[in-house]
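User: My collaborator and I are trying to settle a disagreement about how two of our proteins should look. Neither of us wants to argue from intuition anymore, so we agreed to look at predicted structures for both before our next call. Could you fold the first one, then the second, and keep them clearly separated?

Assistant: That sounds like a sensible way to settle it. I'll keep them separate. The first protein:
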Amino acid sequence: MDFDGTACLHDVAEHLLIEFGDPSWPEFDAAWERGELDSRRVITAQAGMLGASMEEMLEFALDHCPIEPSFPGFVRWLATEGVPVTVVSDGFGFYIEPILRAAALGDLPVVTNTWSTNGGPRVRFDNGHAECIGCGTCKMGAVLGARQGGTVAFIGDGKSDRYGALYADIAFAKDALVEIARADGVPFLSWGSFDDVRAQLEALDEVPGPVGAERCPGWRTA
């Protein structure tokens, strides 16, 4: 599942940019929406705009960006059912594990970008695709990897979740992901809280299976 706006109530990266970023940061999001920039360029540029230390930003995130209230119970239920959960995010990455630990969910696996403090670029894309640069963290790759162990459900809310939804066996969508899934022909279930997701999973008789093509439609090499 996605993190920002999904497992977490807020888009943490956006909140950090509003609080600590250069005012021009939305221009990069707009260029990404128009397909003019890949998310790696956007994330790299916006990370460089943040005028605060990681410690300051982390303190702000912990104070202002809580976990979705029904998420911990949902994770505990899945654990009793023997269903593994992985958080997959194409955000700045550094705040996810601390926010999960604060909610007593620090043992959840997280696949995301890597925040660097070694003096180079602030973000590394250690979980990106080996060839495609369309995304920082490849959610298609995360879903395909998980499918080696069985049926995969993907839960998300936004544009960066498009490729996870395309390759999952069943997708749960809200907000911007709803129209994206419709446009892609992805069968999905709507959700507002993780209680909704649980109820629909418990009632599910069969899953539609993935609709993704052999090559991700977001493929970019330049």
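The second protein, kept apart from the first:
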Amino acid sequence: MSYIRWALFTVPAIVFLGLLSGRVSNSGYDNQWFAALVKPTFMPPGWAFPVAWTILYILLGFALAVVIHARGARLRGPAVALFLVQMIGNYVWSPLFFRMHQVTEAFWLILFILAVSVLTTWAFARVRTVAALLMLPYLAWLAFAAALNYEVDRLNPDASRVAAPGLRANIE
């Protein structure tokens, strides 16, 4: 029963914090600065991102609950610590990219997130195999997101200076 209680906390918390990060940073296709950038040809449609991230955050919440529930597991503490480090990086990425327009820095951050997530997955596997399996779609998406971030950076070398189309005022 303890696993269910943990999952009832971890899943909504991770989903809520992800939603909050996206809202605070004005992420997505409605962001005028982002809309002004050149996108790679393999950029998914706008609806795919909230769907993918919601599913991934749910899986991450379940994976974390599995590990937290594994009382007495030798690597439980370090695994949770690694998970928290990569999640903090995950929640910082959207404001860095969408709010602060730091595309290159966001690329380096996503590589850091990916590296720590690989270590997290390894640690989760040492605690409970199912937790590591729940991390695999996230690792795949992070690799894809890193490729997208790299291409946006390559296609928009002056992205931090791109001016979002603004409102026009007719003052006479």
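Some points you might bring to the call about the second protein. The mean pLDDT is 93. The two ends are 69 Å apart (CA to CA).
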